[in-house]
Amino acid sequence: MGEKAKKVTISSRRRFLTDFAYATGLGIMGGLLWAGYAEKAKSSPLTLRPPAALDEPDFLKTCIKCGLCAEACFNRPSNIDRDTGEPRPGTIKMARAQDDVTIGTPFFIPRDVPCYMCDDIPCVVACPTGALDLTKVTNPKTGELDYTMMDMGLAVVDQNSCIAFWGLQCDACYRACPLMDKALRLEYDKNERTGKHAFLKPVVDMHACTGCGLCEKACVTEKPAIRVLPREIALGKPGAHYVKGWDKKDQQRVKERVGKDVTTHDKRSAKNPMDYLNKGVEY
């Protein structure tokens, strides 16, 4: 080639604009990816929070993701493996990118490491913001910490896969429960199939269960037949239409609905009951 290619020179102003556009594009792309992931993580309804956590929306506003609760959980004096003398993994984890939990917030998975319900509840004491609310685990009568007031979730038994409901002898969850015969009891029932054996079925008391997960960890089945779920997931909700007439506490709910229209309005309610009753179910 006879002529040398001319070297293109770029002005400083043009280089500045090019670099600025490049950086802005990267920033927008990163922001979109982060926002998308954060939104997905928030949507996880099965997250179990440490003891005394505020309701999820308030918890997310209050928790500063400092990790002091997880640190206190790991460093508690009782967290020592008796065989090796080394510290065991802590119950509380801080959510990472691969977890389906809001990044940086504390949570726990009972099947991995359950909550051991420490008397001094160090995780709650360590929280600097009140995201783990000390008043929720403080007995108002004595002013002392009370681990029985913890509320992390509710244990739910799958009767189809629990081998105690098959008639096999198993009480692993019952023996693991720190509130034995309060949060979890065994209910005797006759085995009609054999006529000479008994069922010992685990029954959870929703008022006493703290959701510590020791039962789930102890369950012997391949996938645990007893699981801890957030109460919002585990429990139903009857609504204001139904009231226990014999329960004064439940009647209090009725007072709160005064002035509200609780009548169901739909196509069927607009008809006379004689027009649709005894005509079978419409699919």
Automatic annotation (TrEMBL):
**Entry's transmembrane regions:** 20-37
Keyword terms, alphabetized: 4Fe-4S, Electron transport, Iron, Iron-sulfur, Membrane, Metal-binding, Repeat, Transmembrane, Transmembrane helix, Transport
Region ranges (Disordered): 260-283
- One Pfam family in the UniProt entry: Fer4_7
Q: Which domain of life is it from?
A: Bacteria
Basic and acidic residues bias locations:
260-269
Q: Which InterPro entries does the entry link to? A: 4Fe4S_Fe-S-bd (IPR017896), MauM_NapG (IPR004494), RnfB_subfamily (IPR050294)
SUPFAM superfamilies referenced in this protein's UniProt entry, alphabetically: 4Fe-4S ferredoxins
- GO molecular function: any one? 4 iron, 4 sulfur cluster binding
> Which segments does the entry list as coiled coil?
none
Q: Where is the 4Fe-4S ferredoxin-type domain?
A: 50-83, 104-137, 153-189, 200-231
Q: Identify this protein by name.
A: Periplasmic nitrate reductase subunit NapG
Task: Record the organism.
Answer: Nitratifractor salsuginis (strain DSM 16511 / JCM 12458 / E9I37-1)
